[in-house]
User: What shape does this take?
Amino acid sequence: MPIAGTAAERIALLCAEASASAPAEHREGLARLHTRLGQPLHIAVAGRVKAGKSTFVNAVLGQRVARTDARECTRVVTWFRYGPTERVTVVARDGSRGHTRLGADGLVPEDLGMPVEQVAAVEVELSLARLRAFTLADTPGLDSPDTGVSRATEGVLGIDPDSQTVMAEAEAVLFVMNQTVRQSDVDVLRAIRALSRSAGNDVVSAFAVLNKADLFDAQDPIAEGRRIAARYAAELSTELAGVFAYSGLFAEVALCGLFTEDDAVALEQLAALDAAKRERMLLAESSFCRSPTPTDVSASSRRRLWALLREAGLRDVFQAVDAGAAGAVALRKHLVNRSGHQVVDAHIGELFEANAAALKATAALEHLETLAWRVGADWGTTLRDRIEALRLDPVLHVVAELAALRQVRRRDVVLPASLADELVELVSTPMAARAGTAAGLRRWQAHANSDVSPMEAQVARVVIRSYEIASWNGTNP
Assistant: This one.
């Protein structure tokens, strides 16, 4: 028999009922939690200064809207969410809100209309279909030397107070790293998890991009970046769901409409020069922009190409032209493929978008449970009993699935590789679309009954119930 309702709807109802009898000081928090359950997934983008967070955000959105230079608007948390029309709202610390528009260049305005110290956040509404599924929060760079940019808080590794709030409440985190992973990056990741747990949200899904992969010193920088990212992914498997090599430069240029047909024509003309001449031009910006060439490519066109692609991008695109690529469409496709964006975008879809409802429900339920224990007394006891009963509801089984997946990703439980992959795929597939339930049941029942640890057997039982519930819902046997 199909199961009615959703996990979010059940938890929202519990929030409303709990709020009616909650101590006065907790009602506002319960109201916010109730509201969040009806909103898109919140994804926080974090990273150190100059790691390329804003470039990454632009590529994910497919629109160059976040400023990538150190302006005042980059010193505050900037939210990118769906809206029918483009609008920018500056939220002041006193609660007042001022409305403006994107700049003439399409970017968040440089002037926020008030001193940055008075700004709590900037909210950017964009008519982008993708933002119906999730809201992005671009946080200020960590450990900035400018104390106005990153007001270091003792014990929280330079995460400013506004970013602490965003990361504590986010259901997912994208961490942007700049080529080399330092111990301080690992410490920050652990601090983010601690912030989440302190807010009653231990569900945070996180993965990282190793940005600026085009700058690795190797014959094929991108291939070297992928090799290093794979090594970091193994080393950081308890902190992250993955680490992926990425070139924000390539992705932004290709996906945000920056690379035009005129650019392609100019590049193809320069690519026709002999290899030695091209190599001399690529030695420096001055050489590329000012060297006389036997082509019709103007100095201004060459300056534009250098600004777009830099040495690494130009060298890479020249190789693509040598291999037969021609025209802006083909060269943009080449840049996207080389950037690593397709892999990262697929993981955003699989880890975040496909699991959005489950991530929100799990975070909300854990928040409620933490609140119930903190308050104690009759109200807390009643709420804990309601939560326990709710966890037994088949609709809330997604919470148990995410908990099992978290145990496997943190290597608290080590499954055979085939079963670990199956668990990831299962959690990423909506309940109504799950197939192969009979075969899945047999596999996991056999595993649960083999010589495995109690924690591994518990994970197996979670998956067994997943297949049982899918079978009840009438999916394919």
